[in-house]
Amino acid sequence: MLTGRTINGKLLGPGQTLVCLGDSVTTAPAGYVTTVSQTLALKFPESPPSVLNAGAGCNTAGHMLARFEHDVLARKPHWVTIMAGVDDTVHELQTARQAIKHAQSETSADQFGIAIEQMVRTAKAADVRVALCTPNHVEDHWTGDERLANRCLRARTARLHRIAARDGVLLIPTGEVLLTAARAAAERNQPLRLTDDGLHPNAMGHTLLALAFLAAFDYPLDLSSL
User: Fold this and answer.
1) What total number of domains does the chain contain?
2) Is residue 139 in some structural domain?
3) Core-most of 96, 115, 146, 162, by most CB within 10 Å?
4) Does residue 7 surpass a pLDDT of 80?
């Protein structure tokens, strides 16, 4: 369970700094980070939280760990969110030439988990609060092996849940929100595309990511309150 400081009952307050660390999903122009920043600016016009995008394309969790000091801690944030897993999975499948075995997938998930755990420890040692975001699923119009990719992503998602529960950090179920929306639409025979390329969220996908993100910080998007 997440414990610690709140401001007026909220996890993230006016004037605070939030760094969003991630891969190509996070770095997307006009993506979820932009929506979160703009929404919080509307809620706190006099002293909005500073939401900084530290996404980088083709980044695995290991890459993020390597730049954690420079791209996160150097900015002296109150919070860091970590969204990893999609590019880890793509890298894993490409490296294995689409022929990775299940046991190898588990090993890769372990390496992913080790990097995440190190970032959590480093952040907590610097008195920076951490939120882990689960990765989005791969849709069937991706050019790679969609079933294998999603199996790898489920392993990484499970690892994130275990780390969050053990270390008492916030878990944002961003991936689960997208998957739930897609399944609900399919049940109504109204297929919902949440990516343009099967891998990276489109505008609707980023909207859902932002909604999950804001709700986790106890700022559900209620337009009547803006």
Assistant:
1) 1
2) yes
3) 115
4) no
